[in-house]
């Protein structure tokens, strides 16, 4: 019985980590994309700021995922 509880807790913890990582990636990438799109619209430029902010968003997303996973593995 105790083994089932620990397995359930492990599943819940894994799902929590997975949802945290996916939300971090989505918010970072889409947030930077829309900021770049907004700047391009206001300055009437090509997609230069959209691309710059998209690359920054992707880099920031992977950096935050890396830090979160490293912190999670150190706790284990």
What distinguishing features does this structure have?
2 helices, 92% helix, single chain, elongated, 76 residues, mainly alpha
Structure characterization notes:
- By secondary structure, the chain is mainly α.
- It is 92% helix and 0% strand.
- The chain has a domain at 27-75.
- Helix 1 (2-43) packs antiparallel against helix 2.
- The longest helix is centred in the N-terminal third of the chain and has 42 residues, at 2-43.
Proportion in β-strands: under 5%
Query: Span between N and C termini?
Result: 23 Å
The ordered H/E elements are HH
Query: What integer is the average pLDDT?
Result: 90
Radius of gyration, rounded?
A: 18 Å
Describe the largest sheet: none
* Helical stretch tally: 2
Indicate the low-confidence ranges by residue numbers: none
Give the overall shape.
Answer: elongated
SS-derived structural category? mainly alpha
Quick summary of this structure?
By secondary structure, the protein is mainly alpha-helical. Helix content is 92%, strand content 0%. α1 runs antiparallel to α2.
Please outline the helices and strands.
Layout: H1 2-43, H2 48-75
Helix pairs in contact: 1-2
Transmembrane segments: 12-36, 48-66
Protein name: ATP synthase
InterPro entries: ATPase_put
């Amino acid at each position: 019985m105790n083994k089932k509880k620990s397995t359930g807790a492990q599943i819940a913890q894994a799902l929590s980590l997975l949802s945290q990582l996916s939300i971090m990636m989505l918010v970072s990438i889409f947030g930077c994309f829309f900021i770049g799109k907004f700047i391009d619209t206001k300055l009437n430029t090509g997609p230069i700021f959209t691309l710059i902010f998209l690359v920054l968003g992707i880099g920031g997303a992977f950096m935050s995922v890396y830090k979160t996973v490293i912190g999670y593995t150190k706790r284990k």
